[in-house]
Predict the structure.
Amino acid sequence: MRGVVAALAACASLLGLAAPVRGGDDAARLVADVRRHLGSSCVFLPRGRASRPPVYEERLAAETMKLLPTNASLYFESTESMLEKKNFQHCLNTSPLQVLVPRSNAYVDIMKQLATSYLWRSSVWLVVLARGETAGDLVRPVCGLSVGLVVVAELSPQQARLSKVVCPGTPSGSTPFRDSPEARLESLGRWSRLSGLSSTGEYEAAAANPLRGSHLRVAVLEVPRITEMYDNQTRVGGIFGKIWEAFGRDMNFTSEYVTVPDGAYGQRKPDGSWNGVVGMVMRREVDVGLAPLTMTKSRAEVVDFAIPLLMSNYMIFIRKPSTTQINWKSFMKPFSWELWLTVAVLVAAVGATNTVALALIRHHVGPATEERCSTADNLFYAFTILYCYQALDKLPNSLSCRTVYILTFLTAVVLSEAYSGKLISFIAVKKTYLPFTSLEGIYKDGTFKFGVVASTAEADLFKHSKEDSLRKVYRQLMAPDPRNYVPDELRGLQRACDMDYAFLSSYEETVSFVREVSCSVVTLPEIFFKSALAIALPRGSPYISTFNAKITAAMSSGVVSRLYRGAWPREEELPSGDTEPVELGSVVPLLNILVAGAAASLVLLAAEAASRPCRRLCDGQLGAASDTLHLVRCSPRPPTFRRGFSLARRHSF
């Protein structure tokens, strides 16, 4: 690029067109000094749509190139090239310096073209006037352009007076962006060929902080924990408010906070106008809209958004269901089916082991060592130990049987404690059974109405959506009743308490109101969508790059995340109200088992009572048969049972 510029200058010299223009190399030295004090890494000499660049601009570019250090670049480009090329990103690390030489107000067209791209709005514009040429009519058109700091240099032999452009209707020190028919100049200092800039601090401060000394009108929409006003609307709090006041202290500007008359975020009206915060910013009634505005395509067409400060989760709130579903599986859930099967096998193994051990002991040691116990009794004992954690009324005498029972008791202790702990958690911790879990479920249910806060991005989402599911919800659940569009989050939650109503809203903006309504509310488990929340500025505002740089610094330093954790602690959840007792429905399965067991015992008792006469008759017949048998057959060995033994002695010879 340097070679191209030098070649152009040489050709111009050969043609006799290289006479000193606009102060000769004074303009080049002025540009180099301003660049050095601003710390700009790139200098641009943009040119308009002329087929051939003017010779005096070529000469200025060549002279300036000679004075720049190796770490700085100079670009002599057309506006079309600057808007199309993507290789200028490295220039944005510092404020680029745009050098303009007025030619019948052509510089205004150049500024308008470059201002259409946000890349160049943070530039510092240096307008170099000719000797004896006054600002006058040349600087008036600057007002109303979406540009940053504009510095006017009025050259005279070996010196220049520098001023910045301020438009009427804007505070002193602010960069003009409101439409205004006139402009005024505010002195920044002087430049001379020998001493350079006379007040370097003014230039550096003005370039690095175009808001220094400004007084801004800020529209504030109060949202708990995000934007809150205190002290008669002289201070703001919440995440957005704290960050904004920190910006004011760092960049040395003040704010006048105004409320939003209609209390709306901003929605397009049928006549094309906008209400709420977005409308005030669009009409330039305020400099900034300080509210958690959802970034949507329609809003971005009328205002500029800064970098998002918060990502919000939009969720659906409903009244907490009052009925508790009876869960018959609660008493089986503490153990997996594999463990239940293992315990059943263990009961059979313990019962069988005791039966075999008792039989062997009675056979080899003697019948008197252990009492006779059937297999059914041993299985019952093992079941009561392992499942019911019950002791025995009489322990076996042998060491081997006692060992089996001791190990069984130890196993039962572990199983019982594990089961009890799990069962208590299942019964004590209540689970809310929702009638639906998604927006589609609300539509299919058909008994609930659905709504959002009026004049919000959510309202536009359903009204103008191209998705069939969202259009159906809008036509059938929202549009028929205008009351589904509530004024604010608090009334939306209260409407959910008063009727079957599902309320969609930002969780971060709504959670503060859940304790103020007359019922307990819950959210559906699915997050409906996530949205970026940001502040808004008028379309084309030159402040946008300054605020974006500050927001980026605040996010990278952890300030935003720290404020978020303070506003919404990680452990905070929707309140569940006072401590609630265990309800009857939680233990209905156990009570049913108890009643069924009592009924079964009565049936068995009746069966036993009905079978007792038959048993007595059978016993009598068996006894008579035994007597006859002993009379006919005189057994040398008396029967083992007591009655047979006594009969044998009575009839013996």
Q: What stands out?
A: The domain at 337-428 is CATH 1.10.287 (Helix Hairpins). The CA atoms of residues 326 and 585 lie 6 Å apart.
